[in-house]
């Protein structure tokens, strides 16, 4: 019987933890108190993102699969692929303008994806130092980043080209660190949230080019009608296109969680042609970003109530893409094992 390789799984581990027997490390992202350039280290495609304020916060995200991967460097990107999944990571050094280097980095990733044959991009993460600060030309760095990304995406996919779930969040150093996952034969479906304007259609007041990402992406084996693994993008207290509850972290949490629940809901999945439904209790590998350290307890208690007791949840204190946002949350709702 043909089996579809469905062994892609992300986990949060202690640094240096080995994969279980029979499993292989496709990629490793260490959240550190400094940045570490993309490279193959001990045979593993690896990058360190400066996201921790001190050693207590150190945590490592690993992406494991069933087949032994091949790893290497392509231009400035480190990558690994196992025949079904591709992991790729890069860093753009700190600079006065990101538009051009972001365009080039995306170009390189698109080239790699097409050369190696992993056309379905599942999920992208971007960690952007000084995300709310002005660049050398006075443009906010997040907007500068969005400009370069939109130009690269337009060139490859055309203006209507669909992008997967993403995160675009602050970091504590190292320019822009970013990584992505792609698949060869899995079925990818991008989801929107009826409570939110699709990010690619945001009005100009948020920047010259909109952020190109979907609210969630579902990855399923070919032939599966259900949702598969649902990767929920970085989600915040935005209704329509506007930030809601400026200055009130508890209310921002509520709106954020309600947005995530809406994206995953049966009603929303059905509206995207998917006969399935998920709840916040299904989410795993939850990353919570908060702007102010002093909000940690409030955010933690909202998350403890909303998510499963067995979900892995990590908290990072970093800036968020809009200066009026205090919290942003992402997660993955895996499909039930066959
Ligand atoms: O620009 C992004 O890719 C992005 C995606 C999700 C949340 C966010 O703050 C930003
Ligand atoms: C979180 C965020 O920035 C957005 O949804 O646009």
Automatic annotation (TrEMBL):
Ranges where the Chorismatase FkbO/Hyg5-like N-terminal domain occurs: 61-182
Enzyme class: hydrolase
A GO molecular function held by the record: hydrolase activity
Region (Disordered): 1-20
Pfam families: FkbO_Hyg5-like_N (PF21168)
EC code(s) of this entry: 3.3.2.13
Residues that bind substrate: 142, 149, 202, 215
Active site: 328 (proton acceptor)
Keyword vocabulary terms for this entry: Hydrolase
InterPro entries noted in UniProt: Chori_FkbO_Hyg5, FkbO_Hyg5-like_N, RutC-like_sf
Highest taxon listed in the record's lineage: Bacteria
Protein name: Chorismatase
